């Protein structure tokens, strides 16, 4: 695992000077204390991804020229085109890799991981990097108190390679429902509503979220899909070493763990430090907990996000994380 978090930290005290909120409300309703924010003229998501990939290559002692493919999951690409994957590959020196982006919001990393693992399983490619990266601060409305405390910026990256020991992503179940778009979207900037002075004035280039509708859908779908994947693979709670849930709201994480009957100490949580980094939450959890992971550990990855998109994956961890301690 490689990762990058920008230096600037936006805490609840600073937020309470920007909108009518408090540390007490944010901690009790969401569970976030701080989030990292990327500052700097012209720096976009590829900057976050580039540094996560360089961290990964250095840690794993991998030659950038050996990478076949890089898939970047993001909803905050630097530009519509070229893809952020291509920009990251260029900046990190992956001269032999092709790349493309996957847009599945908070579920993007899992969707990309599933795609990449299929390329490995078929034998098509030998070394694939999956990046989850988002500069959410670029689309957050810092006058909307119901969404601005939630999001942060960051990137995580993982290297996939073949093995014959039954390790890796063993099963997954992914879902999409475009009907959810009405509750969570960014209206303008695409082909339906290209940027105009009006779209800017109307704040259509920011995240629109109906929090309660999204909350309810997240709680039921993340729990159900995790339970379905466990059941299909005959996994009981005792078999699971960690749940790796999308970090959107501490109450959603708790509800998902409860739905599958998992004790809290088996649930990866870092929302308090990093907030919701959209496509980066899953890889940032794996990176954060890496030193505690052992070869053969059974992980359930669970996500829900804009689209709507949601899913779960059954991952058998491939190495002793302590060997790569930071
Ligand atoms: O990762 C993408 C997927 N996104 C999610 O999973 C997010 C899901 N939704 C949520 O996490 C929650 O719905 C929110 C965190 C967005 C909001 O929490 P909530 O408990 O659903 O609050 P609410 O929207 O029902 O608002 C309750 C009250 C309202 O005041 P009144 O009308 O009861 O007087 C809001 O105006 O809390 C107020 N409020 C705030 N108060 C202080 C909303 N935001 C704030 C705030 N500080 N930041």
Please give a quick description of this structure.
The protein is α/β, with parallel strands linked by helices. It is about 30% helix and about 20% strand.
Q: How would you describe this protein?
A:
Helix 3 crosses helix 4 and helix 7 runs parallel beside helix 8. Strands 1-7-6-4-5 form a five-stranded mixed beta sheet, sandwiched between helices. Strands 8-13-12-11 form a four-stranded mixed beta sheet, sandwiched between helices. The chain is built from ten helices and 13 strands. It has about 325 residues and is α/β, with parallel strands linked by helices. It is globular, with a radius of gyration of 19 Å. The model has no long low-confidence stretch (mean pLDDT about 95).
Named once each, the bound ligands are:
oxa(dethia)-CoA
Q: DSSP strand (E) fraction?
A: 15-25%
Residue share in helices? 25-40%
Largest sheet: 5 strands, mixed
The succession of helices and strands, N to C, reads EEHHEHEHEHEEEEHEHEHHHEE
Label the structural class.
Answer: alpha/beta
**Broad shape:** globular
Overall pLDDT level: 97
**Helical element count?**
10
Key traits:
four-stranded mixed sheet, alpha/beta, five-stranded mixed sheet, about 325 residues, about 20% strand, 10 helices, 13 strands, binds oxa(dethia)-CoA
